[in-house]
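Morning - protoporphyrin IX containing FE inputs below, output right after.
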Amino acid sequence: MGLLRLEELSELSPVALALTVAALSLVLLVLRWVLYPTFDSREPPVLRPKVPFIGHAISIARGINVYYARLHKDKRMPICTLPVLRGKVYVINSPTLISAALRSKTLSFDPFITLFSLNALGLSEPEKERFKDPDYLATASKPIHTSLLGEPLRMVTQAGLSRLAADLNAIGPGKGGVKEVSNALDWLRDVMFLAVMRALYGEKNPISLDLQTHIGEFEKKVGLLVLGIAPRLLAPKALVARSAIQQALAPYYLAGHDQGPDVSAFVRNRAAVKRKLGIRAADLPASDFDIPWTAVTNTIPSLLWLFLHIFTRPDYVDRMRAEVLEATAVTGDGATIDASKLGQKPFISACFLEMQRMYNDAGSVRWVMEDTVLRDADRREYLLKKDTNVQWFGGVLHLNDHIWGADAGTFNPDRFVNADPQEEKKRRGAMIPFGGGKHLCPGRMFAVTEITALIGALALAFDVEGVEMAHVVQPPFPSTGMRRPRWKQGGEPKVNIRRKRGWEDVKITFTV
Ligand code: HEM
């Protein structure tokens, strides 16, 4: 049956005509409802997709970070509503509104933690049931934010630093180790990976170096796993990788090594709370599986970017070295670096911040639990409706030229050295590399110290040759935070590390 032509319409009886008009109107109304949903005028301004209904969804699926950055560049909206299929997403771009969102008690991360736990961790069915209970989640999550502070933080940091020092001291003549490192980028990844795992899991650390590629496979697809759509079909390698890591963790938890005296409080307390809540040791490898990958997924790319930016600029190496020397006690053939001081040195801390500004594009997502009003710096208010998804990306703030100036896309640590108060005011709330509010990254101080100590020690006592800046800056994998360096054609540069003259036999140690 074809569509009615106009001349056929005129031949219809009045009743049939009325029914046809009513049916067409209904179809148009439904189409309008589907394609052009209406919004409360107090909600953030609506940015309709060019292709109704599916436009934003397709662009988001192609690369959410890049899409939101482009929308912000084109439209410069402090906050907007994106109609996505039959739903909507609020996207925030203003530092003041993001700070307000982070402080808000009615915007919650919990539904996403549950979603992540149910879909990405590979939990057993009884464990899944527990994770659906908000009280369980609250109790089990408590140690996350209390175990990387004060003395427990100092201990885990020192453990990581001791491992870093051993690897650094293995380079050099007469040490019984290697004379030089000839593939330094891989070396950096390996050394940091092992230091972090050893520091977290203690002497019986079950996460050996060969599991690093599995962590890499998992993080590539973790965003897809979280969505829970056909994981076996879309992310089979990530599932294999997850299972390999969990198999390595199983004997560790079964033997109770997680309660060992040299295990970090971060691993020990989290497992202890869960054991108390009745969780079987056999379920801990899945239940606490977020630990190994969150600990390195952003830490290792951060280390690489800092390394690349420092060692492609001899003047930066000199400035960094001068500050490391201020924090170092040299005695005979030993050098003890006080790593706790490095992150406070003006140039070193500026380099770390600038590296995060350039390459941290961590996304945050919150669920609106109750209708919520957020107020911007110009006092304009926006209503966020209950049961809606709110998102923002660090990269939009970190690379905003209205905030950072025309050179926002250039690595320039001096913007953080002696910044004038007017500049600082403009930047308020615009640096969120570690998130904020209730879910502020608990590993931030550990990561800063390990990274600055390793790069600082290299600047102090080693010559680094062959460093070439990455050709491509790749967006982060979904659900991770750091952009990634990539080199064209010839692959990664072959970087050499060897001892500086006069530092050949100096034994490096770190304190915190
Ligand atoms: C340079 C390195 C790191 C960066 C840039 C980074 C970044 C972040 C960001 C942006 C968040 C917040 C996500 C949100 O608000 O939704 C976060 C959360 C988190 N990070 Fe990190 N992180 C780093 C290192 C670490 C390390 C070393 C650990 C563990 C030892 C860690 C453990 C965590 C955990 C457990 C959370 C979740 C906190 C919660 O949900 O309450 N991170 N991280």
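Note: The chain has two domains: 6-95, 124-362+432-511.

O.
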